[in-house]
Amino acid sequence: MTGRLAIVGLGPGAPELLTPMAAEALGAATDLVGYAPYLARVPERPGQRRHASDNREELARARQALALAEAGKAVALVSSGDPGIFAMASAIFEAIEMGKPEWRGIEVTVVPGVSAMLAAAARAGAPLGHDFCVLSLSDNLKPWEIVLQRLEAAAGADLVIVLYNPASKARPWQLGEAFRAIARHRAGTTPVIFAHAVSQPDERIEIATLAESETCRADMRTLVIVGSSATRLLPRGAGAPFVYTPRHAEMVPS
Ligand code: SAH
Predict the structure, then answer these.
(1) Is residue 252 part of a domain?
(2) pLDDT tens digit sequence for 64-85
(3) Residue 73 sits in the same domain as residue 191
(4) Which of 203, 196, 240 shows the shortest CA–CA distance to 218?
(5) What is the pTM of this model?
């Protein structure tokens, strides 16, 4: 009998940000598949098997999950944040499209999660209160020229820009180049949020201006949000100011 596969978003880290629907899907699984640090966030349940994998092996992990489901297991494949955003859900559909015809008979469900940008935005205030766009800065799966082209277009359209995968040891210079591309369209005073390890014990939220933004402020566990021309700071009694984008927009002279 063919099993089933739930692709489950774990949220950004804090157990409180795991949805009840995700908790239910994890509890109903006979087999959990995922990147080891994400699996470590899921409470142990007797009788449930865990299949930990390397982070870079996304397609192999997708195929492993599908093979287990084909063999009759109830599989939960875990992703951080939302599984549909730069994560495993697309890898599963790619694997099904290229894979065995039998895989099309597997009952697949995608269980949404709180994406890092939602948790990061909430911590900072409301930077995503008006039109925005989301890009992954990783050039593992697309050429850097496409990243730059999209950044230029988004910056030219005065959208708030959310950057996932901003930097890593293997990609040390891309974020600096991205800031320079955006700065061709936007004032140096534009607020930039560096949200590191949101909702995790070592969370750190930094607010800078575009002019002072540097790659060294970000790593693999950081999400970067660059404001539009309307995004502003609102000082509060104690602590860092709120960063928010008003609900209305004006034409910006080009
Ligand atoms: N599916 C995930 C994103 C995976 S891509 C989601 O919806 O959140 C991995 C990137 O997500 C990281 O490089 C980082 O930019 C961001 N990210 C994931 N969790 C984060 C967290 N807790 N705090 C800050 N950024 C995070």
Answers:
(1) no
(2) 999 999 999 999 999 999 999 9
(3) no
(4) 196
(5) 0.96
